[in-house]
Design a protein that fits this description.
Two copies of one chain form a homodimer.
Chain A lengths: L4 H6 L15 H8 L2 H12 L2 E2 H7 L5 H13 L3 E6 L5 E6 L1 H23 L9
Antiparallel strand pairs in A: 1-3, 2-3
The structure holds a DNA duplex (30 and 30 nucleotides).
DNA sequence: CCACTAGCTTACCGAAAAGTGGGTACCCGC
DNA sequence: GCGGGTACCCACTTTTCGGTAAGCTAGTGG
């Protein structure tokens, strides 16, 4: 176990093990999981595994390219499991790994909260774009 | 209160109140708070308010432009409070609003978990870039 | 009196992300 | 044999992101 990021916040210079340090590898993964589509894909797969086409229809507005790219990225990071049945027509199932499920449990409250907060706000949340 | 995003996941078509729908306004805010620098700034401000220069030094690698842009965005979304004492040389304090603090409590576990997971992983987490 | 500081803003430009349109392979139903 | 469905990949273009550099204000140290 490593230091809490709270310790980092106390210090003037953050330790290299937290994403506040520019050379920390966690920044890369953090970028992946907080990417525009990455969040939605992980949350979508949190409930149940889905096929390619299902995901594409479900995460509205994502292009095929971005879906493929996002899935490959998340697979590379060990969050998503890709299972291709060798059948024709092709059928590929995507699901979360154990690590992906852990991530989902952190992302779901975030998405839920943002969604709720925006919906609840009477005055527009943003003054400018 | 609105529907849980879980209901959305059960349905074939997600309701317009969740970020799965392409026209949902929460997508915009979600993009802000999950942006590369947005996450780090909110988490940094979660512990204590900071001045411009402090933040700039603390969130390593962020350019002045990006810091200003991120802060303006988060201020527009109501997450960050900007207090400029009219003194010269200028002194500006940034802190989280109540809403910002709520957000921080969701982001901290995420950052912590990613940081821990990456640090704990022996084999490289990502197969490809 | 000149440089230096803090906290920005704006203009400019290259890089990277993301959208578009096409193609592929294979089989099925008509 | 033609079109449609599935799950992609590749090339091209557009859009956005993000970094560099300069400028601005006003007081302060040398």
């Amino acid at each position: 176990m490593q230091e809490s990021i709270w310790n980092a916040i106390h210090a003037d210079e953050p330790p290299a093990t937290t994403p506040f340090a520019s050379n920390c590898p966690s920044r890369v993964v953090l970028d992946h999981v907080t990417s525009k589509w990455g969040v939605l894909v992980v949350v979508a797969l949190s409930r149940r595994s889905m096929r390619w086409g299902e995901l594409h229809r479900y995460v509205e507005g994502i292009s095929e390219k971005m879906l493929a790219q996002t899935l490959r990225l998340l697979e590379g990071d060990g969050f998503v499991l890709r299972e291709s049945q060798g059948t024709v027509p092709p059928r590929v199932d995507y699901s979360l790994t154990e690590r992906g499920r852990e991530l989902g449990e952190l992302l779901i409250p975030l998405v839920q909260w943002v969604s709720d907060t925006v919906a609840r706000t009477d005055q527009p949340l943003r003054a400018s774009a």
